[in-house]
């Protein structure tokens, strides 16, 4: 059974904000948006894997960081899934964010 979490964020219109999710690409899993971004409120900027600050070891995890720009005031959602790209039917986790833009 997949794990699911929900969080809330408040961000300022015009600002870029990050979301960092624990990840370990050596497992074959990666985070991806599970629904399109509502472009009335947010613009996707980038995603990258960030290894831990200490010396990396083989198989060590880190964080996958997403960046979004808030463009209009309002409330929207972001949803992410942690899946293997070749097997979208067996996701390990889902994370949801309710984003309030002020």
From TrEMBL:
The keyword Disulfide bond does not apply. Gene3D superfamilies: 2.60.40.2020. GO terms for molecular function: cysteine-type endopeptidase inhibitor activity. Residues 11-95 form the Proteinase inhibitor I42 chagasin domain. It comes from Brevibacillus parabrevis. Keywords: Protease inhibitor, Thiol protease inhibitor. This is Proteinase inhibitor I42 chagasin domain-containing protein. It comes from the Bacteria. InterPro entries: Chagasin-like_sf (IPR036331), Cys_protease_inhibitor_I42 (IPR052781), Prot_inh_I42_chagasin (IPR018990).
């Amino acid at each position: 059974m997949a794990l699911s979490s929900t969080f809330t964020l408040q961000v300022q219109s015009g600002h870029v904000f990050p979301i960092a999710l624990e990840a370990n690409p050596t497992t074959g899993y990666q985070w991806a948006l599970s629904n399109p971004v509502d472009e009335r409120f947010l613009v996707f900027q980038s995603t990258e894997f960030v290894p831990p600050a200490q010396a990396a070891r083989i198989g060590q995890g880190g964080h996958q960081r997403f960046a979004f720009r808030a463009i209009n005031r309002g409330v929207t959602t972001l949803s992410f899934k942690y899946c293997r790209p070749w097997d979208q039917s067996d996701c390990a986790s889902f994370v949801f964010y309710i984003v309030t833009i002020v």
